[in-house]
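User: Run a structure prediction on this.
Assistant: Running it now.
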Amino acid sequence: MTPPFPSGRPLFSLREDALVRADRDRLTVRSRWGPVHVADDSPLVREALHRMSLGPVSLEHIPVLSAELDRWRADGSCGPQWSRLKRTLDQLGGCVIPSLGLHNGAGPILSLVAVTADAWFDWPDIADTEAVHLARGAAITDPGGGLVLGAPGARYAVHLHRPPATGIAKLLGAGENTVVGLAERLRVDRAVVADVVAYLASADLVLRGRDRAADHG
């Protein structure tokens, strides 16, 4: 079962074209889709957006979030500060780039770049033995600068920076599979595979087997 929190390192950043304007009594993020007047201009949100403007970062290093993160990893309960920040990330929609890293000090293995302004990142609950498959029309392309997985109607295009994300996406492109099957085939830790599959599912690029009829309807 997909854990309540990624086993890897969830990273967040803002789009390259996103500009944060932090006035004393107003916080605004402007991007290709226009300005977003952030409803919560608390110190927590201001600090998070400042860090995210510098590139993919782990927000757990913000002190007020650290203790809540430990509890989240332990039992899946989301504390008030994480919930507060999540509301802002949801409001910013496509301005936010969720990425996934490993605990090896390297950069992200994949990043979700929105193709619609109202994109949002959620965390689906997928069993390790549940059949999953790529969405209809999903394909890996190389537009220059790296591999990208996309599909018509998907909220995000997923930039596949390096293994094991690239291998998982390619195997899913070959047909229906499971987290267990992908992990055994690639000899990758099952929890890492579950993370990657969950990120792809959040991007609308991986569907459960039971969703096949709707995908082809």
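Residues 14 and 53 are 5 Å apart (CA to CA).
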